[in-house]
Amino acid sequence: MKPGKTGIARIIDATGYSLKGLKACYRGEAAFRQELLLVLVLTPLSFWVAGTVVEWILLMGPLLLLLIVELLNSAVEAAVDRIGDERHILSGRAKDMGSAAVLLSLLLIAITWLPIAWQRLQEFA
Q1: In terms of Cα–Cα distance, which of 31, 111, 38 is closest to 70?
Q2: CA 12 to the chain's CA centroid
Q3: Which tens digit of pLDDT belongs to each residue from 74-97?
Q4: Which domains does the chain have, with CATH numbers?
């Protein structure tokens, strides 16, 4: 077992580190701010679009996943950039893969939101 804080003190510290990471990503990553804006716009809309609790969870899950994936993508980019400025095929590949994960998360949002929203709109037609 690693030495250090345990119990509630560790949880408090971990929460602080997590909030610090969110703040750093918000300040340093334009993509994270844009995706957060998307989440903030779609979240209130999700209450109108969803007909059931299960649909609401299906709508919100991909939005949270997008933010998680963007945080991880930003972490990979920061680590790669920390290693050095020179171009390397593996560094480029790591960054491209992180970007691809974000793209797939956005695709998941579209795949989830469009059919549910379409079904909701058909109820009013």
Answers
A1: 31
A2: 23
A3: 999 999 999 988 899 999 999 999
A4: 30-124 (1.10.287.3610)
